[in-house]
Design brief:
Elements: H1 8-52, H2 71-78, E1 79-86, E2 89-92, H3 101-107, E3 117-124, E4 127-137, E5 142-149, E6 155-162, H4 176-179, E7 188-189, E8 192-193, E9 197-199, E10 214-216, H5 222-245
Parallel strand pairs: 9-10
Antiparallel strand pairs: 1-2, 1-3, 3-4, 4-5, 5-6, 7-8
Helix pairs in contact: 1-2
C-alpha cells in the first residue's frame, strides 16, 4: 500500500524527523567547535587587557592588538598577578581572567551570592598597573572594556568594545580618538569617587583638563555615551574600596 505523502501525519513525522536530524547536527558542530570558541575568547580577552595597559601594535592612529601567536606569552610576561576582589580584600587566582563578569552580575541578583570581581595586575616600564574589566549597555546591546589604573588611580589606558552599536556613531567607542582621551583622567576627587563621564558640549574639547572627570562625548552617540558613563561609574565603584588601599 502506497504512503500518502500529502497526509497531515506524514508531514508531522517528516518535520519531526528533520528537526531531530538538524538538531543533532548542530549539537555536533557546536560541540566540535567549543574548544576553538573557548580559545578564541581567551585570546580576545588577553589582547584587550594588554591593549588597555599599552601593550599593542598601534601606529599613530590604528588600533592593533598583540598578534594571536604571541599573546599568551605577552600576557604571562606583563600580567604579574590575577586577583579576585571582595571589598578591601584580594585573593590571588591564576584563572581570574576566566571569570565571566556578565554571569557574575546575573548571579549577584541573589543576595546570598558573593560576587567575584577579577582584577589584573600588570607591570610596564617599571609602573604597576591595575586593569579593571567593565560591562554595560549601549544603545542596542552590550558594551564592555578594560580600564588600566596606576596606584594613584589615574587612568593609564583603556579599551572599549561593543556588540552592535551604530556604525560611525556609537561604534566609535573603540576608535583611538575616543579611547586615547581617557589617558591621564582621574577618577577620584580627593577621597571621593567620581568616575568619568562622556559629556556633550564639554568645555574642554581637547581634553587638556584631566581632573574634570569628563571626556568629550561622541557626536550623535548620546545613548551609547550615557551607557558607557554609567558602566564606568557602576563597575569601577565596586573596586574602589580595594583600589583606595593602593594609595595608602
Amino acid at each position: 500500500m502506497a504512503k500518502n505523502l500529502e497526509s497531515n501525519s506524514y508531514t508531522v513525522l517528516f518535520a519531526s524527523g528533520m528537526v531531530i536530524i538538524v538538531g543533532a547536527l548542530l549539537a555536533f558542530v557546536a560541540s566540535s567547535l567549543q574548544e576553538k570558541i573557548t580559545e578564541n575568547k581567551r585570546i580576545e580577552k588577553q589582547q584587550n587587557i594588554l591593549y588597555a595597559m599599552g601593550i599593542n601594535n598601534n601606529d599613530e592612529t590604528s588600533v592593533e592588538f598583540v598578534s594571536k601567536n604571541i599573546v599568551a606569552a605577552e600576557f604571562s610576561k606583563y600580567i604579574t598577578k590575577q586577583l579576585v576582589i571582595s571589598g578591601t580584600e584580594a585573593v590571588e587566582d591564576p584563572n581570574a581572567y576566566l571569570i565571566d563578569i556578565k554571569k557574575e552580575a546575573t548571579e549577584a541578583k541573589n543576595p546570598n551570592y558573593k560576587r567575584r570581581l577579577p582584577l589584573f595586575v600588570g607591570e610596564k616600564d617599571g609602573v604597576t598597573l591595575y586593569i579593571v574589566p567593565v560591562r554595560g549597555k549601549g544603545l542596542w546591546d552590550a558594551i564592555w572594556g578594560y580600564i588600566a589604573l596606576d596606584n594613584q588611580l589615574v587612568v593609564q589606558g583603556v579599551y572599549f568594545d561593543h556588540q552592535g552599536e551604530t556604525p560611525g556613531l556609537g561604534s566609535n567607542i573603540k576608535e583611538r580618538f575616543f579611547m586615547d582621551d581617557f589617558k591621564g583622567e582621574h577618577i577620584l576627587d580627593g577621597d571621593t569617587f567620581k568616575g568619568i563621564t562622556a559629556t556633550k558640549g564639554n568645555a574642554d574639547p581637547k581634553n587638556l583638563d584631566k581632573t574634570d572627570f569628563e571626556v568629550d562625548a561622541i557626536a550623535g552617540a548620546t545613548i551609547t555615551g550615557t551607557g558607557l558613563s554609567t558602566m564606568l561609574k557602576k563597575d569601577l565603584a565596586m573596586y574602589i574600596p580595594y583600589l583606595k588601599t593602593l594609595k595608602q
